Amino acid sequence: MSVLEVKDLYVTYGSGTTSVPAVRGVDLTLAAGRKLGVAGESGCGKSTLALALLRLLPASARLTGEILLDGEDVLAMKWGRLRVVRWAGASIVFQGAMHSLNAVHRVGDQIAEPILLHRRATPAEARTRVGELLQHVGLPVSRADAYPHELSGGQRQRVMIAMALACDPRLIVADEPTTALDVMIQAQILRLIEQLVAEKDIALLMISHDLGVLADTCDELAVMYAGRIVEEGPAREVYGAARHPYGQALSAAFPRIGDPASRRAPRGLPGDPPDPASLPGGCTFHPRCPVAVDACASEDQVLVAAGEERRAACLHVGAKQL
Ligand SMILES: Nc1ncnc2c1ncn2[C@@H]1O[C@H](COP(=O)(O)OP(=O)(O)OP(=O)(O)O)[C@@H](O)[C@H]1O
Ligand code: SF4
Ligand SMILES: [Mg+2]
């Protein structure tokens, strides 16, 4: 059985009279030990998708569809069950560790908290486990006594990963886990995440604007645009030979791992992604697409087969090779 199954997920933020459809009909499947990367420019709905998986969205967000974690329906879970699942079932590693860690508590105590709460461990057992976890993420045990500001950015992100591993989750969702780090440290943290999920057979859903980072780390890739997956398939193939024009622009934009300059404007792609509150009709990518034809402004596109284990949402796919 899949660790994670997402079926026809919609997330709409409602503020006043405007409604912002941030995720529009996403389907995903992820098995134990597999690594799925979700890529796309700023605002395409990546974090909304990540937060939806554990129902961490603000009250203004409306969700429809299905999210199954080990077969259990996340959207139907009662509050108590959801709290347990957020540690023991799945955990999230966010981008800026400084904001996610509590500045006034020692990092060892912060890692111990879920172990004490959800594992019913004694303080001595929790301390031992914290030591093991720190060693696992490549930090000396003595760092347990440090406060977040006494650690480097890379060390803080290692602490976040230790916290995510604390209760042996089945799924880790990593939302831009290395974006704030410099390139060398970024590569180290990516290798660490890769090694840990392989050792423990954890399913990993990793989010990044950087297709290169994801292609290097993940087995499969999903490219999001305006709240939808527009291309998916084996990571190396999508990165090396994207079938959707947006996937092609993204892979051309990230020839090197971790190039923050490309974040807002992938090379060769004019304009910005659309505001989800006023999406263009037809294929939402048509105002920026270099190979758009007249029909693109009126015909909506859904994912269709684009080769073995590959799918893309473009009218040229299937009609002819781009
Ligand atoms: N709480 C909210 N209320 C209303 N709209 C929101 C809210 N959070 C996000 N949005 C909107 O939903 C869309 C998707 O945002 P999201 O944060 O999921 O994008 P993202 O792909 O993670 O972008 P980034 O790469 O910048 O992190 C954006 O248009 C954003 O403005
Ligand atoms: S459907 Fe048209 S606009 Fe959309 S990606 Fe394909 S060619 Fe471009
Ligand atoms: Mg985000």
Summarize model confidence as the mean pLDDT: 89
Largest sheet: 8 strands, mixed
In percent, how helical is the residue content?
25-40%
Strand content: 15-25%
Give the SSE map:
Elements: E1 4-15, E2 18-30, E3 35-39, H1 46-53, E4 61-69, E5 72-73, H2 79-89, E6 90-93, H3 97-100, H4 107-118, H5 123-136, H6 153-165, E7 171-175, H7 183-200, E8 203-208, H8 211-217, E9 220-225, E10 228-234, H9 235-240, H10 245-253, E11 304-305, E12 311-312
Parallel strand pairs: 3-8, 3-9, 6-7, 7-8
Antiparallel strand pairs: 1-2, 1-4, 4-5, 9-10, 10-12, 11-12
Helix pairs in contact: 4-5, 4-6, 5-6, 6-7
In short:
The chain has 322 residues and is an alpha/beta fold. It contains ten helices and twelve strands.
Could you characterize the architecture of this molecule?
The protein is α/β, with parallel strands linked by helices and 322 residues long. The protein has helices spanning 46-53, 79-89, 97-100, 107-118, 123-136, 153-165, 183-200, 211-217, 235-240, 245-253; strands at residues 4-15, 18-30, 35-39, 61-69, 72-73, 90-93, 171-175, 203-208, 220-225, 228-234, 304-305, 311-312. It has an eight-stranded mixed β-sheet, with helices on both faces. Strands 2-1-4-5 form a four-stranded antiparallel β-sheet, with helices on one face. α4 packs parallel to α6 (153-165) and α5 packs across α6. It starts with a strand and ends in a 10-residue tail after the last strand. The structure holds adenosine-5'-triphosphate, iron/sulfur cluster and magnesium ion. Magnesium ion (MG) binds at residues 46-47, 175.
